[in-house]
Amino acid sequence: EDLYLVLGVERDAQSSEIKSAYRKLAQVHHPDHSEAPDAAETFDRIAKAYSVLGDAKKREWYDKLMRGDVAA
């Protein structure tokens, strides 16, 4: 799954854009605020994407992995 698509940001997005997108999506999809039956699952996907893309070292590794520069 493409973590950039999960957060709805471009691959060259600044860290502030990633954080902002995460906060907006988390607020909408948080299980305590959403009545959607898949809210918890969606929120988990959003949190996972942010945990990787919100950390500079993890994001660098993820980008290399997506390009095929490193082995999984």
DSSP, total strands: 0
Broad structural category: mainly alpha
Task: Catalogue the unreliable spans.
Answer: none
What does the average pLDDT come to?
94
Percent range for β-strand residues: under 5%
What coarse outline follows from CA principal-axis ratios? elongated
The largest β sheet comes out as: none
Q: Percent helix among the residues?
A: 55-70%
Cα radius of gyration in angstroms: 13 Å
Order of helices and strands: HHHH
> Whole-Å distance between the termini?
14 Å
How would you classify the quaternary structure?
single chain
Number of helices: 4
How would you sum up this structure, described in words?
This protein is mainly α and 72 residues long. Helices cover 65% and strands 0% of the residues. It is built from 4 helices and no strands. Helix 2 packs antiparallel against helix 3. The longest helix has 15 residues. The two termini are 14 Å apart.
Helix-strand layout with pairing:
Blueprint: H1 3-7, H2 15-29, H3 39-53, H4 56-67
Helix pairs in contact: 2-3
Features:
72 residues; mainly alpha; 65% helix; 0% strand
Provide a compact summary of the structure.
The protein is an all-alpha fold and 72 residues long. Helix content is 65%, strand content 0%.
